[in-house]
Amino acid sequence: MSGKPKLHYFNGRGRMETIRWLLAAAGVEFEECFMETKDDFTKLQKNGFLLFQQVPMVEIDGMKMVQTRAICNYIAAKYNLYGKDLKERALIDMYVEAIMDLNELFMTHPIQPADKKEQHFATIVDKATNRYFPVYEKVLKDHGQDFLVGNQFSRADVQLLEILLIAEECKPDILAKFPLLQSFKARISNIPTIKKFLQPGSQRKPPLQEKDLPKVMKIFY
Amino acid sequence: MAGKPKLHYSKGRGKMESIRWLLAAAGVEFEEQFIETKEDLEKLRNDGVLMFQQVPMVEIDGMKMVQTRAILSYIAAKYNLYGKDLKERAWIDMYVEGTTDLMGMIMYLPFQPADTKEKNLALIIERATNRYFPVYEKALKDHGHDYLVGNALSWADVHLLEAILMAEECKPDILSAFPLLQAFKGRTSNIPTIKKFLQPGSQRKPPTDEKSVAVIRKIFSF
């Protein structure tokens, strides 16, 4: 019986994965409708369901929401994962936007030309370990609290955990110099809703395999 | 004299321009400190005032805010340009993300290799005309109001006007199939704070020319 949000995307992480994380962290059950072929995508477009002809699209509260950030913002605000006032929201937004920048690098790695891949990987590791992770390590060190903002669980914590795990998939020891991020990772992973999402059989998606890339590209191009 | 937001960026549009527009629309006076050389950027970095070593950075309300969207969201919320409830906010976010995508394409055009410029310009015009402008034209048509969301001026309206003017710089008659957007442009341009921002001598920046491209590449090393 619907009332549950319904996610429209392909059966993979991409730009929908952060949305899955936020819904799961908030304890919200959701359904998924996977596009497998270009025809599936064209059908959604022709039906007028996609405001800008793009996915992600999430049916939620009577809206067909598009644009990843709009959807994340709505979910975060609705489920009290967006801080308690404007200033907390500002901090959360700053932290989250940077995480999304880093995620963009990870996301675009599989589609780099073969001769650029190694350099791109080096850039990702450099940015993660020198530009981004030190900031969050320092935030946790400075206030000594369990959560990034306002001593309270927020989307910033969810999205940071998401990116830490993605980074570790690329380079297992990437958190070697970040003890507070390591304990953060363990602590947030243990939150019941998140623990559940991290278990096999959840709606969390695996990393994109090279062999699956052509199929995904065919849907969109 | 503090109290006024202070913007740190190069002397051009880039990612800071939408922030200038929004502050101006809200009637908020602001100061600007321009990065003119690579050394200026390095100094900001070494001073530890750029959270992720990047600009835009805006000093506002005791914070050194970075990340364009974070700054815009804060300004919009603070100055009541973000709708009255969660659903209006959702629509504003959706509309703004669309105009952000369109303006992003236009912003990068001067930096594309010369042999791809023509193709990229054609893509911008195609997307503006077939993907983005029809959405806003329809939104205005469906509710018949002056503003995109909730019958009140919001960030979405300011952002759309900015995008329309940028698109017209690419192709002056780009709005020819969109009568409601033309009327919207006329109407929104006449709002006193925005009218003031559109006048010569304001802090609005001109389009990026070849000379600026070279300077920007030097400052940001790309």
From TrEMBL, chain A:
Domain spans labelled GST N-terminal: 3-83
Family stated for the protein in its record: Belongs to the GST superfamily. Alpha family.
Protein name in the entry: glutathione transferase
GO biological process: glutathione metabolic process; xenobiotic metabolic process
UniProt gene name: Gsta1
This protein's UniProt keywords: Transferase
GO molecular function: glutathione transferase activity
Biological source species: Hemiprocne comata
One Pfam family this sequence matches: GST_N
Gene3D superfamilies with a match to the protein in the record: 1.20.1050.10, Glutaredoxin (3.40.30.10)
Keyword Ubl conjugation: no
Enzyme class: transferase
Domain GST C-terminal: 85-208
EC number of this enzyme: 2.5.1.18
From TrEMBL, chain B:
Protein name listed in UniProt: Glutathione S-transferase
InterPro entries referenced in this protein's UniProt entry, alphabetically: Glutathione-S-Trfase_C-like, Glutathione-S-Trfase_C_sf, Glutathione_S-Trfase, Glutathione_S-Trfase_N, GST_alpha, GST_C, GST_superfamily, Thioredoxin-like_sf
Family of this protein: Belongs to the GST superfamily. Alpha family.
Species lineage: Eukaryota, Metazoa, Chordata, Craniata, Vertebrata
Domain GST C-terminal: 85-208
One record GO biological process: glutathione metabolic process
Keywords noted in UniProt: Transferase
Top EC class, one word: transferase
Coiled coil (residue ranges): none
